[in-house]
Amino acid sequence: MIDTSETIEGAAVCGLCNSSLLMRRYVQVEESSFYVLCSVECSGAVARAQRRARWAARRRATKRLTLGVIFAAAYLAPHQGPIKAPRASRATASQTRPSTPALQPGWFGPEWPPSDTAELAALGRDAWLHPLAGPVRRMPRRDSRVFGAVRPGDRAPECRNGHCGVDLGGEIWGEHVYAVHDGVVDWVKRGPNPDRGGQFVRIAHHNGTVFTLYFHLAAIAPRIERGAPVKGGEVIGLLGDTGVRESGPHLHFGITVKPGKDWPEKYMDPEPLIALWPLHIPLDGSEVGLVTTVARPGVPLGSALGIPGRKRKLARKERASEPAAAEDEGGQRPAKEKAAPTDDEPEADDGPSEPASED
Fold this sequence. Notes:
5 helices, disordered N terminus, alpha+beta
């Protein structure tokens, strides 16, 4: 805004309110044009109107620029179209096709066939007990006592290097061994049994879909007979060293599962389970006791890794030990005798499916 007293030709009235110009004049310059005004108020009004016009023009320009950028980005961005699934061959499709049809909406049920993870989860949800009494939780103390440790002989493939269970306890010879769950006695072996794990008990649970095995017992309770029902926490025998060759007394504890009647029986590693199962705390050394669920969890050592080529080495060793021309009277090769075990676990770790005799 310029304050001037010069006479501007043709400007006798105010450019805003048309009032006559008296002593002073105010000139408002806007680019190439100017306004002659009568007062400061008129000059401020003109300035405000000019600012509003400029900001409106800027907003329109910004809006047009933004729309232009959006359309340009949409036009220049690459478009691949919908992603098509790769066409698989019939052989690949047959290999990846599930063995069982998917469940229809509204249907539910367990995973079938059950995986090892599903079986462990099912056993973890049920009420089980540790086979040895507390208050100290007994776990495998050495790598030679874990599931899958090295044992001689031909064992089940899931047992890795041969050991089909875990070895527990041994601090107290003759201490109580407890049934870990309600079930029915499936097998009992009393008396001498040096090559098949000594005296042992096998109990069936959940209608014969889960079995627990207790080997090297010093004695078996008189009421434990085949077909007899047992309760979880009931004493089934005493820890001992029957059938043990090169180690001290201990309990060999194993678990097998058989999901269906026509399914093969399979061993499982019980160490993750016994690390969490409640402990039976006896009172005054008797069978009567309390069960605690707040005992400190055990620290599993983990099952042993399979030794590559171990089965092939055992087969070559057995073939080399056979006489070259050993034949019986009928021209048949004699039946191969099973090698006597040399470790602390006897041949019975394969389970009582092939016992020397049945009680």
